[in-house]
């Protein structure tokens, strides 16, 4: 891939389109509005708080990322979305119960203006939910065309000059990649024939890509991670990324596992269990939706620890992930990890992690960063899979001939080096011999 010659400056408004206006989406929208009013800090957002070192350490150049690359400003963001429930963003945020009432009231008027468009929804893919705000159409293709009309309507109504779409909808049932996912022609025919391998999230992705809108997938569904849509994205010069926001337990897993491996400590087992009581937890109570999530969560250790390279350390790991729906906790998930490691001469040790986290508080800044970085990528002329955004995902998309990179620190290095590369700055290798000549 060639380095972008010129990155077009962000002019006009940037429209953010969110299929699924539940806990994550409304926490992101409300949070962005609170930050731009100066009422809160964008904590957890690399684009807003992160810095990037440029050149040798003697120069002490570490600008903020947002001052180094031409990212759009929060003031220019406008929001829209779809949901099967007709609640406006204020009502949806109240129901999600993530942000406290006092904070939400400050942005109530703003949130009330954001009303979800009718969703392309099918209960066969999210069995625990049903709602009235849905589109009608004879074929999946018709529904996708309706989404495309919504996109154009939104563009006109807001006057946005660029758009980005991030799937914040529920986790759909597990789907394996199939023949109809292999080419654009087969995929579009399957949409017209109502093929069961075409899930609603794929219709949004198709509509976004064919409208020239970058797309990120925050859930573990296949969605855009199929050859047909990757090919389509390249054809339409659209950057895409996915899948499944890396937030609580998996974030910690991708911090701890590289540490064990760095010190050549062995791993016998990793038992992870979660209790959560939000709508996402309810959807994941369905075994088919859970399977999609489970696959996404399980892959991480295998790729980080490379058991084939280290059979004595990681060749026999018992890895289990459970998610239990437990309503009293709402969005405040508790994730327990019991980790059985072993050291010198094989002596066993245990680590217990109890993360009392807040799911949507961890996910919202990821949505913000993805919106800003995908828009940047498009203005820089990048298209197809944006592997440098792996940092944000549990199951990062990558080229078919390579394996995904899960180690959070390698992911961060890759992300920052990509920004340096885009801007024509020297890459940082951490070699550092020049300081000792
Ligand atoms: N930390 C996190 O919160 C986190 C981390 C990783 C992934 N995710 C994923 O992000 C997604 C959103 O999480 P959430 O906590 O906001 O869930 P949520 O249940 O609060 O919100 C999802 C919304 O999507 C809507 N929806 C479902 N199918 C739809 C469709 N076809 N079109 C439009 N809307 C649709 C639902 O009605 C619901 O309001 C989930 O898939 C979740 O697994 C969340």
Describe the fold and architecture.
The chain starts with 12 loop residues before the first strand and ends in a 15-residue tail after the last helix. The strands form two sheets. It has a seven-stranded parallel beta sheet, with helices on both faces. It has helices spanning 23-36, 46-49, 65-68, 89-96, 101-106, 108-112, 140-158, 184-192, 200-210, 227-235, 249-262, 279-283, 287-305, 311-314, 359-379, 408-422; strands spanning 13-19, 77-83, 117-118, 160-167, 215-217, 239-242, 266-276, 318-325, 334-342, 348-356, 384-385. The mean pLDDT is 94. By secondary structure, the chain is α/β, with parallel strands linked by helices. The chain has two domains: 13-245 and 360-422, 3-Layer(aba) Sandwich (Rossmann fold); 249-356, Dihydrodipicolinate Reductase, domain 2 (2-Layer Sandwich). Helix 7 (140-158) crosses helix 9 (200-210). It contains 16 helices and eleven strands. The structure holds nicotinamide-adenine-dinucleotide.
CA distance, first residue to last residue: 34 Å
Which class of secondary structure composition applies to the elements?
A: alpha/beta
- Count of β-strands: 11
What fraction of the residues are assigned to beta strands by DSSP?
A: 15-25%
Q: What's the overall average pLDDT, rounded?
A: 94
SSE string, helices as H and strands as E: EHHHEHHHEHEHHEHEHEHHHEEEHEH
CATH class placement of the largest domain: Alpha Beta
Assembly category: single chain
Record the strand order, biggest sheet. 3-2-1-4-5-6-11
State the domain count: 2
What does the main sheet amount to?
Answer: 7 strands, parallel
């Amino acid at each position: 891939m060639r380095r972008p010659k010129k990155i077009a400056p962000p002019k006009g408004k940037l429209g953010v389109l969110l299929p699924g206006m539940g806990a994550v989406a409304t926490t992101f929208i409300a949070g962005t509005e609170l930050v731009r009013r100066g009422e809160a800090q964008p904590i957890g957002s690399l684009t807003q708080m992160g810095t990037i070192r440029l050149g040798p350490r003697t120069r002490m150049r570490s600008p903020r990322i947002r001052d180094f690359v031409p990212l759009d400003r929060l003031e220019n963001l406008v929001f829209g979305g779809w949901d099967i429930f007709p609640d406006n963003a204020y009502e949806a945020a109240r129901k999600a119960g993530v942000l406290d009432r006092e904070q939400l009231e400050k942005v109530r008027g703003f949130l009330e203006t954001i009303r979800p468009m009718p969703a392309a929804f099918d209960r066969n893919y999210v069995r625990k939910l049903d709602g009235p705000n849905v589109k009608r159409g004879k074929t999946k293709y018709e529904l996708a065309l309706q989404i495309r009309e919504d996109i154009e309507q939104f563009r006109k109504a807001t006057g946005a000059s660029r758009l980005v779409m991030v799937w914040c909808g529920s986790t759909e049932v597990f789907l394996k990649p199939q023949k109809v996912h292999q080419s654009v022609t087969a995929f579009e025919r399957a949409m017209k024939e109502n093929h069961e391998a075409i899930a609603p999230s794929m219709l949004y992705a198709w509509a976004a890509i064919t409208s020239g809108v970058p797309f990120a997938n925050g859930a573990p569904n296949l969605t855009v991670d199929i050859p047909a849509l990757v090919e389509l994205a390249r054809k339409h010069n659209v950057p895409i990324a996915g899948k499944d926001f890396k937030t609580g337990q998996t974030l910690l897993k991708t911090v701890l596992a590289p540490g064990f491996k760095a010190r050549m400590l062995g791993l016998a087992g990793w038992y992870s269990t979660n209790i959560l009581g939000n709508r996402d937890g309810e959807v994941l109570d369905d075994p088919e939706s859970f399977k999609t999530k489970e696959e996404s969560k399980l892959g991480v250790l295998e790729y980080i620890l490379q058991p084939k390279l280290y059979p004595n350390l990681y060749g026999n790991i018992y890895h289990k992930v459970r998610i239990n729906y437990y309503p009293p906790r709402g969005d405040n998930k508790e994730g327990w990890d019991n980790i059985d490691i072993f050291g010198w001469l094989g002596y066993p040790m245990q680590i217990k992690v109890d993360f009392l986290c807040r799911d949507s508080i961890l996910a919202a800044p990821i949505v913000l960063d993805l919106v800003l970085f995908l828009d940047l990528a498009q203005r820089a002329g990048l298209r197809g899979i944006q592997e440098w955004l792996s940092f944000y995902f549990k199951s990062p998309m990558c080229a078919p001939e390579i394996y995904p990179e899960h180690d959070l620190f390698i992911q961060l290095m890759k992300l920052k080096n990509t920004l340096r590369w885009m801007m024509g700055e020297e890459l940082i290798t951490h070699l550092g011999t020049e300081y000792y000549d």
